[in-house]
Amino acid sequence: MAIIVQKYGGTSVGTPDRIRAVASRIVAAKEAGASIVAVVSAMGDVTDELVALAAAVDPEPPEREMDMLLATGEQVSIALLAMAIHALGHEAISFTGPQVGIVTDHGHTKAKILEVRADRVRDALDAGRIVIVAGFQGTTADGAITTLGRGGSDTTAVAVAAGVGAAVCEIYTDVDGVYTADPRVVPSARKIDEISYEEMLELAASGAGVLNLRSVEFARNHGVAVHCRSSFTDAPGTLVKEVDGSMEQAIISGVAYDASEAKVTIRDVPDRPGVAATVFTRMADANVNVDMIIQNVSEAGTTDISFTVPETDLTRARRTAAAVVAELCARDFTVDESIAKVSLVGAGMKTHPGVAAQMFRALSDAGVNIDLISTSTIRVTCVVDGDQVHTAVRALHDSFGLESAEVTTDSVPGCGEGER
Amino acid sequence: MAIIVQKYGGTSVGTPDRIRAVASRIVAAKEAGASIVAVVSAMGDVTDELVALAAAVDPEPPEREMDMLLATGEQVSIALLAMAIHALGHEAISFTGPQVGIVTDHGHTKAKILEVRADRVRDALDAGRIVIVAGFQGTTADGAITTLGRGGSDTTAVAVAAGVGAAVCEIYTDVDGVYTADPRVVPSARKIDEISYEEMLELAASGAGVLNLRSVEFARNHGVAVHCRSSFTDAPGTLVKEVDGSMEQAIISGVAYDASEAKVTIRDVPDRPGVAATVFTRMADANVNVDMIIQNVSEAGTTDISFTVPETDLTRARRTAAAVVAELCARDFTVDESIAKVSLVGAGMKTHPGVAAQMFRALSDAGVNIDLISTSTIRVTCVVDGDQVHTAVRALHDSFGLESAEVTTDSVPGCGEGER
């Protein structure tokens, strides 16, 4: 019997009524002939409430105890979901992350999965039961409870799917798939039926929030097909899988944006070897997650170094930048919190030169000024003014004709040749 | 270094402020030179809220999943208490029941502790840490989470104290010890400084709610000294321990009452051998917890069988009684929910005859009618009308002079002799 892993987020299990609805969906899948493992998150705002409780007793709670606290959120969900399935006359059994053998490193609050010992899940499935697993949590080899950090339940689902050899891992959310752009920004955005792991990774890293980056990496590394779909409809969503002959490779898959970063510029740094190394070693030591980096042309022996960081890391980044300015005898540093990234992602880019040029032209035609540029083989990212990011997304979606399945580029055929 | 186990109930950790107060008390004990293990219950009403959530998804939730759900309550408390101690600059580490090696049987929602593997607690204490343990919960040998039922956190505390060889197990509650009677009913009631396990067992079984019956049994079986005291003062409370030469054995330790039982009477049962066995086998099969039993004198070949049951078991008791009436061709059954038990407990009773006679006389003088009577070597219990139970408690407390440490009885010396 095929095994299907289904993952339901906090919104899907936010109230007793919604838990009962999820139970019905699971039972329907079971009655259709599959073995079901459901991975669930904490109910709605429970995690936020637990974080507030912790803050009320300790301004800087130890991470081990934070994990002990937060892991209760998912444990409540799994018990309630198992009960709701029982109320429908089916047999369900719930397991916490530690019980199900999700072994992680010791990185409390952001642990990485080392191994999934899925014997208990397989035994319960063999006994005809529906298995409910707590997302977001695991155990160290010596028995401490860990949590996997943001989006961890997606990663749990993919890891369990890999562990039990599931046919597919279905990630249920409040949107019905991955779109060519955020439909709130681009009403003509189109749902993508199939997408490769690589493109999904670039989209997730560029701000498309549907799937968590680490879960897509895990899926790619273990060859788990991920079906991203809505918990409110039965319509198919977006299938993330290995590229094969059956999959049509679009030149451009989608446009993503991310307004949650800030730009830091250290000005008039003496232009000598090792300067960049010093800046980014200090940032890494301060646990600042640096994304894009650009170093301007040197002028009169000094240079400017700019980089983007998540706004959540900005306090640490400022403190570190001040120290670096003093250490390197730079002039000063500036912070621009109003920036946003807009990214164009597509596997077909590799064989279609001119995509970047068309992107720059489209932004220019829309009056959007480009601040920084970074590229990978299947992605081009521009940093633009935050106020202009929606304009930028719409201009790109329109320029590349993403509202139809047939992507149009200026560069095909012909005129892109000269830009190769 | 002496090890002290401290147990804090749900009221003591009901809010972040109270958790911080408990943390201060623990740190003070640690700084006074002891190794501390703290066992905590779920915060305030958390358990009730979880029960309500379960009821909202499943009218009859499986007990295994109920335990999975309820165990989260204590897990939240231990994490928050460890954080609060950390905020005071001390090192604390929390453990769930499963983590700390509290191995139970498979009796979900009312599991019994089979073994405490206290290695992790001892290792953490040796490392100088304050250890926080979740009360009320454990694990089966094959890894399912269990809960210990009502009062389970007291039992956890005593079991951990036995496991680590603690000098004393301090049970903190909102009262400052065990009293000769409920001070709300008898304002002149006196706090008992020391009491034997046997007397405490009889008091707990008779309705004195301070300590849970099972925890006292566990303490007696493992020789753990239990100090029952208030979390709001530093005054010593009541020490429950083995009788030794240093302990003055009072004739009467206290008066307890319990208004939470109901009386069932099966009327005109044919008086033949095996009838009582049938009645109480059926009740046991229906999981009805029968307390006192009385069979009246036979009249014309039939008899009445009366017994008391907790009001929580009354629905099952009624159903079973109806079936028994049909099976045994009895007349009918009646239920009296207005009864109450009043009990006199004292180790000195064994050597002082006439206590029962004085009890009956005191009740009679106070105009209290006695319905049923049951005795043990150190206890006499009378079932009386629920409306009269406070009058009965006050009359007995007064008659035996329990407000002073010198108990007075009519029967000493002399007049009790004839009643031996």
Question: How does this structure look, described?
Answer:
Two copies of one chain form a homodimer. Chain A has 420 residues and is an alpha/beta fold. Chain A folds into two domains: 3-174, Carbamate kinase (3-Layer(aba) Sandwich), CATH 3.40.1160; 246-420, VC0802-like (2-Layer Sandwich). The first copy, chain A, has helices at residues 16-31, 46-57, 63-87, 97-100, 119-126, 152-164, 197-205, 213-222, 275-285, 314-328, 355-365, 389-399, and strands spanning 3-8, 35-40, 92-95, 102-104, 113-116, 130-134, 137-139, 145-147, 168-173, 194-196, 226-230, 238-241, 254-258, 261-270, 293-295, 302-310, 332-336, 339-345, 370-376, 379-385. In chain A, the strands form five sheets. An eight-stranded mixed beta sheet of chain A has the order 3-6-2-1-9-11-12-10, sandwiched between helices. In chain A, strands 13-18-20-19 form a four-stranded antiparallel beta sheet, sandwiched between helices. Chain A starts with a strand and ends in a 21-residue tail after the last helix. The model of chain A is unreliable at 411-420 (pLDDT under 50). The interface between A and B is large, with 39 and 40 residues.
